[in-house]
Amino acid sequence: MFIVVDLWQPVLSELSSEERTYLSARLTAARASTTWKSTPVVSQTNGRSNRPARPVLKENRLPRPVNPFIVYCQMQKEALGKTRRSASEARKIMGDMWRRCTDEVNLVLDSASIPSYGLISSLLEKEYYAHLTEAENERRRRGHILDMRDRAIADWEEEEARRKGLLAASTLEASADHFRGLLLENYMSERHEVDMNRQEELESDPAEEEDEEDEEDEEDNEMA
User: Fold this and answer.
1) Are residues 71 and 150 in the same domain?
2) What count of Cα atoms within 13 Å lies in the side-chain half-sphere of residue 118?
3) What confidence tens digit (pLDDT) does each residue in 6-30 have?
4) Basic and acidic residues composition bias: which ranges (predicted)?
5) Per the domain annotation, does 108 fall within a domain?
6) Are 119 and 104 in contact (CB under 8 A)?
């Protein structure tokens, strides 16, 4: 059974085209004006991850759903474990108990007579485990979707860090937190540089700042 999941897509406060143009021009000018420097060694893995390819179909497959009997056994396992019984004996006991409960429930459903207290108890117990099973399968399904999302985030962050050349030449594998930290540090550095440049432009051109203030005053007057 397969599911179609809307995987996480990166949503960042990206730099505008003007800001990216400024950074590109600044880097080009800095390289042209500086003296010769040794070319940094770029790892061959910067463009591609070293992780082995994961089997896509297996990763996208939903976990196998459990049935009420499995949930019943999981809840009875601890109690039976204290009796020092073997695994085969415990399985037989739990199977007999579940079968007896199932037979009693079927008797209630097929009989037109008023069921006894014991039969009602069996019916409620069967319904109880059915609800637990539904909740457990939903928990496993959501956990699977979140795992797929986390893997997509980690893969994108690693590829983005390698594409930007943020890794040292000797870095082959690193944790997801390391890649995320590199991307955040790079973004904060670029954002700080752009903001500082914008502040310098405003300070060097007070007329533009006055025009902006006049426009804001006009907008306030119109709203009033």
Assistant:
1) yes
2) 6
3) 544 544 556 667 767 777 776 676 6
4) 191-201
5) yes
6) yes
